[in-house]
Each structure stands twice: as C-alpha cells, then as structure tokens.
Write a structure and sequence with these properties.
Blueprint lengths: L1 E2 L7 E7 L3 E2 L5 E11 L19 E8 L9 H16 L5 E7 L3 E5 L6 E2 L2 H11 L10 H12 L6 E8 L8 H11 L4 E7 L5 H10 L4 E4 L5 H13 L3 E9 L5 E9 L3 E2 L5 E4 L2 E9 L2 E10 L8 E11 L8 E2 L11 E7 L3 H5 L3 H25 L2 H18 L2 H7 L3 E5 L4 E4 L5 H9 L10
Parallel strand pairs: 3-20, 5-6, 5-9, 9-10, 10-11
Antiparallel strand pairs: 1-2, 2-4, 4-17, 6-7, 6-8, 12-16, 12-18, 13-14, 13-17, 15-16, 18-19, 18-20, 21-22
Length: about 450
C-alpha cells in the first residue's frame, strides 16, 4: 500500500491487484488500482469555506435551464427554483457561489457583475429572492452556460471549482461542435454534475457533459425529486478537499499503455485524456476528492519474453496539488523522500494454472465495463428496431448484472425486458416501456458495484 499524502489534505493510499503471470510470449498485463482518500471530506481535514488568504477556498455555480420548455408544465421551473434554493442552503458559510440562467444565452441571476457571492445568511436570502424572478423563454445553448460558469469560477482564487447543470431539453441552439469546444475549453477549470429533468432531453448530451468535466450525470424524471437530488449533490461537493488529482502512469522502454479506465464507482475511459508528464509517463485526470475510494483498470502491453523472465510493466503514482500555495506534492517524482509506489509486474511462466488465472478484481471490472457497453448497444439496437440484437445485448447485460451482484442495474433492466433466466441471460423485450425507465437505464448504465473482497 502506497501513502501519497498527509493532512491537511486527505491521506491517499493505493493498492494494486493483478495476476502478474504470463505464458511464454504473452504481452498484455492487467491490473486494478484502488485509490482511497481518507482524513478529509466530511470527517475532518481543513474546511473548504475559507482559504489561507482569508478568501473563499471553494466555489460553486448552479446553471438552471430557463428555456421555454421549462414552462411545460410550469411545475418544472418552480421545482428548479426550489431545488436551487435548497442547494444554496446546503452551502457552507464562506463558499463562493453564483446562479446562472441558461437559455440560448447565459445570464447571471445572482450576484451579477461577473463575480461570485460569498455564502452567508444575507447572500442566501438575496439569491432566493433573485430565483423567484426566473421565468421561462428562449432556446438552449449549453456551451454558453458552461463558458459563463468558467468565467465566474476563474474570477477568484479557488481550490475547489464545481458546477451543477440542470436541463430539460436538447441543445438545439448551438452546434455539437460549439458544445464540444466549450467542454474542451472548460476541461481542467471545474468539475460539473449534470442532471436531466423530465424525459425530453438527450441522454448522450447530458452524460457527455458530465463525463467531459469529470462529474456525475443522472435523470430526475419527476421534477418533485429535484430538491432532494440537488441537496445531495451540493453536500457531496462540500465534501471535496482537494482538486486536480492526477493518476501518473510510467511505463518502461518497450512497454505501452493500452487503456486506463476508472471502473468504480462508474465506468469512465480516461485513455485519451492522458497528458505526457515525462519521456515515458502520462498523467490522467481524476478530478476532485473527498473521503472516498475509486478503482482504475490498467492494461499495459509489454515486449514478449521467455520463461523465467520478469520485468516492471508499469509504476503508478498520484500527483496531488498542495494547499495554500505550498509546493505540489508529487509522488514519487518530486518528493524529497522515498515513498512507496504502486507497481505492476510481468512474470513469464510455463505454469499453465498460474498464467491462465484471472485476478478476481480484474475479472469483476472487466465484466462491469462490458455490462455498461452492452446496455448502450442494446438500447441503441432497440431504438433502431433491431429486435434480435437488442434482445441478445440486453440479455447479456442481465446475465452480467446477475453474476456480479449489480442489483441496481438488474432492477433497471427488468423494466425494459422480461427476464426468463438471469443466469443464462434469456430475456424478452417488453412491448411497452416507459420512456423514463429507458432513459434511467441508459443514464445509469455506467454505475458499477465494488468487487467483494
């Protein structure tokens, strides 16, 4: 177990799970890296409200869809106003915040003037009053909302920068390229949780926004559930202690990275987001952390070797920004003292039992990643009218969910298919499926369960 950081930020540890044994000529090495942060978040550590300079140390911008569709029915906008007010009540005193109304343009609702307010009794009351004046009208151009959130969060020296985005419709008043450009420009500036309310929004748009900005995505089919959801999101955001943590992966000469994926609590492919940090190392962004644990699946390709050979296939470390202007804590590259590291090994053997054994953690998360993939493929096939493919893919999803103990996903699948035999994945497509049920399954398809140890 590798110790990566100590108070005042959370203490990070990492554990590597793998079967290092390969047959003669074998090249692919798989490993699961469990990263855990303790001692921060909601159980201790430094408070996020006020930084060392006396100013706010964390900032949150809430983007509320105010397009015309939010008035159909009017309960949507009313629920959004109430949810935003409840989320602001969850803010810690001293946290910087702003509220943005999103239509085909972005408008500052509170405090205005291109700045952030500081949470307190007075500013919360003023923000709640400003929210009462929100009205629905206009189109949807989410990229403009994100760019305004970026400007607001960049207006102060903040350690934690977070946003919450609520939409009820499709991004029809800007091109996909414009939204993609906005996401690229905002990446690394703040994290963003995205929520779709009702059933008239596009799942891939909302999940794509959350994925690009290292946040969460979910559906709130009934507007009445927004207040509880927003309150939970804000409470989680307030538990974050350190931002911009990166997973650094070093590989030796001749080895290469096939993929790097977060596999718990959700599946997220980080491979294309790696940034070179040295001749043979790359940093993969993981976002903000509080008290929590996440799992990552690494696949490395090494040069083929003969029986009895052994090599270091990769070395994992964390890059953790230091608080309050102190030098960054980098492990092990800039550390002044030797610290443990997470090592991935390759050992070539003629022991068939050893080389064909699959590590339980690797097997579990390989199945969870496949589960997310076949759900998406099955739903896409269902929408296109390909009954045979949809049945096969969703049947495989039922089988994987059952085998891995992913009860939450199994329950969602049962609303889309009639399960004949979960063990074999024998299912029948339901003739009628509520749109909210299908969208919920698609939105939550990447949620995973931890491997039982």
């Amino acid at each position: 177990m590798a110790n990566f950081a100590k108070s005042p930020v959370p203490r990070f540890t990492a554990e590597v799970y793998q079967n290092p044994y390969l047959p003669e000529g074998g090249r692919e090495v798989h490993a699961i890296v469990t990263v855990t942060a303790t001692g921060g978040g909601t159980t201790g550590g430094r408070p996020l409200s006020v930084g060392g300079s006396g100013g706010p140390d964390a900032g949150v911008v809430i983007m509320v869809d105010c397009s015309g569709s939010m008035d159909h029915p009017p309960t949507k906008l009313r629920a959004a106003r109430e949810a935003t007010a409840a989320a602001l009540d969850t803010l810690r005193d001293g946290v910087a915040f702003a509220v943005v109304a999103g239509t085909h343009r972005a408008t500052e609702v509170y405090p205005g003037g291109g700045r952030l307010a500081v949470a307190g009794a007075t500013t919360r009351a003023q923000a709640a009053e400003a929210l009462r004046k929100l009205s629905a009208g206009g189109g949807t151009a989410i990229g403009t909302w994100l760019r305004l959130a970026d400007r607001l969060l960049s207006s102060a020296d903040l350690t934690i920068r977070h946003a919450i985005l609520l939409t009820d419709g499709r991004n029809e008043h800007e091109s996909p390229q414009d939204l993609r450009a906005a996401l690229d420009d905002c990446f690394g500036s703040f994290t963003c949780d995205a929520r779709g309310v009702g059933t008239d929004w596009e799942v891939k748009e909302v999940t794509g926004i959350a994925s690009a900005l290292l946040g969460t995505a979910d559906i709130v089919a009934d507007p009445a559930g927004l207040t509880a959801d927003f309150t939970r999101m804000m409470a989680t955001a307030m538990g974050k202690e350190v931002a911009d943590v990166a997973l650094r992966l070093w590989t030796p000469l001749g080895a290469e990275t096939v993929f790097v994926k977060q596999v718990a609590p959700t599946v997220e492919d980080l491979t294309g987001r790696g940034r070179a940090s040295g001749p043979r190392s790359a940093d993969y962004p993981t976002g903000s952390w509080g008290d929590e644990s996440r799992d990552y699946h690494l696949c490395l390709r090494v040069p083929a070797a003969g029986i009895g050979r052994e090599m270091l296939a990769g070395r994992v470390s964390l890059i953790i920004p230091a608080p309050d202007g102190l030098p960054s804590q980098a492990v092990p590259q800039t550390s002044s003292r030797p610290l443990p590291q997470g090592l991935v090994r390759a050992v070539w053997t003629d022991d068939i039992a050893a080389s064909t054994s699959i590590n339980p953690q690797v097997a579990h998360y390989t199945g969870q990643a496949e589960l997310a993939q076949v759900i998406q493929q099955g739903l896409d096939a269902r929408k296109s009218g390909d009954v045979d493919s949809a049945t096969a893919k969703l049947g495989r999803a039922v089988q994987l969910a059952d085998a891995s103990g992913n009860a939450a996903t199994a329950k969602l699948l049962a609303k889309v298919v009639d399960v004949v035999d979960a063990t074999t994945g024998t299912v029948r497509l339901k003739a009628k499926v509520a749109e909210a049920d299908e969208m919920t399954l698609e939105t939550r398809s990447t949620k995973t369960v931890r491997v039982k140890k």
